[in-house]
Amino acid sequence: MDSDKRKVHVYENGSDQPEEQHEAYRGRTKMKRNLLKTGDLSLTLKYPTDWDTKTYSCSVYSRWKMIQMKTQVELKVRVDEVEVNPGLESVQLPFKTTLHLPEEVKVEWMDKNNRKVHMYENGSDQPEEQHQVYRDRTQMNEDLLKTGDLSLTLKYPTDGDNRTYTCTVYSREGNILLKKQVELKVRVPQVEVDSGVESVQLPFNTTLHLPEDAKVEWRDRYYYYNNRKVHVYENGSDQPEEQDQFYRDRTKMNEDLLKTGDLSLTMKYPTDGDNSTYTCTVYSREGNILLKKQVELKVRVPQVEVDSGVESVQLPFNTTLHLPEDAKVEWKISSYTKVHVYENGSDQPEKQHQAYRDRTKMNEDLLKTGDLSLTLKYPTDGDNYTYTCTVYSREGNILLKKQVELKVRVPQVEVESGVESVQLPFNTTFHLPEDAKVEWKISSYTKVHVYENGSDQPEEQHQVYKDRTKMNEDLLKTGDLSLTLKYPTDGDNSTYTCTVYSRERNILLKKQVELKFTVCRVEVEEGAESVQLPFKTTQNLPEDVKVEWWEVSSYHKLHVYENGSDQPEEQHQDYRDRTKMNEDLLKTGDLSLTLKHPTERNSGEYRCGVYRKNIWIRGKTVQLKVKGRVQVQDQTGDIRNRSSSIDPTPLMADQSV
């Protein structure tokens, strides 16, 4: 048997049983005669390939199907590997044999996708049978059957040819005579540059004599639009009308390239959007491929990392290039979102996106100094983007381009279930005016806490947070703007943003904190009289609220409390007479639920929601695990209970041997 549980070879009743073996091994296995007498149970496997790399088990059975002997052997078939650099005219996949081959044999090269690479039969090549990917690209030696040289030559190899190739030799009857595998690996050279360089060169030099009427074509490998034309040279000159518009005015090749053999491509203003594998192909006048090479381009984008809460961050860009006085400098995060625009010698705030108004700044005399860095105030994780700075001439031509990636780290506060409160920290040494306003939010509309005119403003906060938040006294003097949140639950998981405004509503400071609450977990053994799903919140909840417990997976209602009393008619029948909540639950804030007679079927996730006028104002999730109990009977007839989740010992261990 192989490790896939397929029968490789069966010997029974004094002979082989080929009808029992798996088809993958038909005609490929053999065992010795008199194997039971000699004790030599070795298996011979013909024409091994890497597909046969497995663990094989040999088992010897008695007449009564009892195993008398068992052994395992691991087979590892090594595949020859051929590695070459791109740009070569051809590569050879070697296969030589000293075996005498009859004249009527068939030789077939296949790739790992079962596509025919080359076929030799009836004394000649059969090009009509090969896959179109390999048409006019393969060649085998003359007199291959006489010389035993079955090697395959593959022209113009690229990384698209990287795979395992199998050569199989068949007799006239279709039996396999010989088999070999070769793995081809075409190394693609990589060119790495930093974003912001003026240009990058994709190198390609050849000593091959190229005809004057040859055509040279560079293409990329793009996800959506495969093989876009990057640059085309034909009839002795560039053909810009043929290239994709993405590369217009950005590429250049050397003069006399066919004479010098320097087919390198220069690409201006590279960004990470240019990261791709580029292929250069040289064609004859008839359209036949003469040469092919690939180069991988990797444009590194520098990353700037800062913690949320800093006053500002700088996206650096310095150049020594001489910039004209009428140049335009533009920072963007997309084709449409302008972050900052400098033109005609001054900033143009009316052109920038509103998300960046009053938040950006560039240095004076930036065109003279070459310092095109951008300062971004009050950064948050909402500013995490790749920023692109482009410098244009008066005519709109690109002079320079650079990218910078911004990463604003948001500190995370983790709390365990059951804590009475959690603090979201924010301390600053920045001098804050006495009339500053401090606002904690979780979205544009949901205010968590507001401090203004020297005191808290509870009427402005969302009702979800009523009576649950607190800030320190003298916070503007001490700089401690931390927020304390009482009775936190998983419903409070969010990113909280604290913003400090001046009297004129200008932002002075901004920080984010992510709150992550661990879901409450309760475990109980089956057979317990009851279990409590805990939930405590603020006291003196409004009398008109509705409290509802339900099972998350099925949405079955466990318990409903409304209008000052339980509503048993609303609960699911599985929970009738099995649930209970405390008296005066709205006054005490104890919304815990008692579930009687829990069983293993009750394991799962439960949620409690508190609503006022159909608006959710409180909530909590509880994960319940009811550990089942197993009855075990020993030989004396005693029955003992044990928890299946505590003791994993097999039941057989309780029996006497």
Automatic annotation (TrEMBL):
Start-end of Polar residues biased regions: 635-647
Gene3D superfamilies xrefs: Immunoglobulins
Localization per Swiss-Prot or TrEMBL: Cell membrane
UniProt-listed SUPFAM superfamilies: Immunoglobulin
Keyword Repeat: no
Pfam family, one: V-set
Main location: membrane
PANTHER family in the record: BUTYROPHILIN SUBFAMILY 2 MEMBER A2-LIKE-RELATED, T-LYMPHOCYTE ACTIVATION ANTIGEN
Protein name listed in UniProt: Ig-like domain-containing protein
